[in-house]
Amino acid sequence: DTGVSQDPRHKITKRGQNVTFRCDPISEHNRLYWYRQTLGQGPEFLTYFQNEAQLEKSRLLSDRFSAERPKGSFSTLEIQRTEQGDSAMYLCASSLNGQGRSYNEQFFGPGTRLTVL
Amino acid sequence: DAKTTQPNSMESNEEEPVHLPCNHSTISGTDYIHWYRQLPSQGPEYVIHGLTSNVNNRMASLAIAEDRKSSTLILHRATLRDAAVYYCILRDVIKAAGNKLTFGGGTRVLVKP
Questions:
Q1: Residue A73 class from Cβ within 10 Å (0-12 exposed, 13-18 middle, 19+ buried)?
Q2: Rounded CA gap, B7 and B106, in Å?
Q3: How confident is the model over A84-108, as pLDDT tens digits?
Q4: Which of A46, A67, A71, A100 has the fewest CB atoms within 10 Å, counting from its CB?
């Protein structure tokens, strides 16, 4: 399977614990995005990378959230001191950005569902 | 940012066409109209996009109004596998804001056998 993969698919944690999610994008894609989706809502943008550089962060991304893409390949999203409000589906997407493209189709992974008790 | 308005839900019978409307009255000249859909328990997937002219691909057709203030996604023969939430999204290809997808609430499509 050459699609976007995410690990783990499900995570249950207690309030106050730290969690880390991993995303492996499609191999040649230079952009990687993180979104969060709560029940009944559309996904909300969190942050994105072009190669290893984090180019934009949403105001939704509080100080407890940090994302990295150290070698421009896989990415991790860490949430420190989790709160019940962090319970959501965390979606990763990747795209190939280049000159002359009028759009950059984003390919999404299956998501990591986080439940904070 | 230009916003889109879609009905919350629509129902269709299997093998009948489905027309999903989207209003985007504040669209700018550099906004492309994109559609994504999200099947149950999956991440969103790209469906189609356009700027001014109507577009067709293997999944659907996109009809864009002449003034570009509205568009319609057309599923020609709905199958049970088309049951999903469909999102209409504007992406500005000039501004950096177009790098991300801004999802609204979407339209939940129910296909009845």
A1: middle
A2: 7
A3: 999 999 999 999 886 555 567 899 9
A4: A100
Number of A to B CB contacts under 8 A, please give it.
57
Dihedral sign, Cα of residue B90, residue B72, residue A101, residue A110: positive
- AA letter at B76: H
Reduced to 3 states (helix: H, G, I; strand: E, B; else coil), residue B98 is: helix
Query: Which of A45, A106, A107 shows the shortest C-beta gap to B102?
Result: A45
pLDDT digit string, tens, across residues B8-26: 999 999 999 999 999 999 9
A84: left (phi over 0), alpha (psi -120 to 50) or beta: alpha
Whether omega before A110 lies within 30 degrees of 0, making that bond cis, reads no
The two beta strands, B9-13 and B107-112, are parallel
For chain B, say whether A56 makes contact (Cβ under 8 Å).
yes
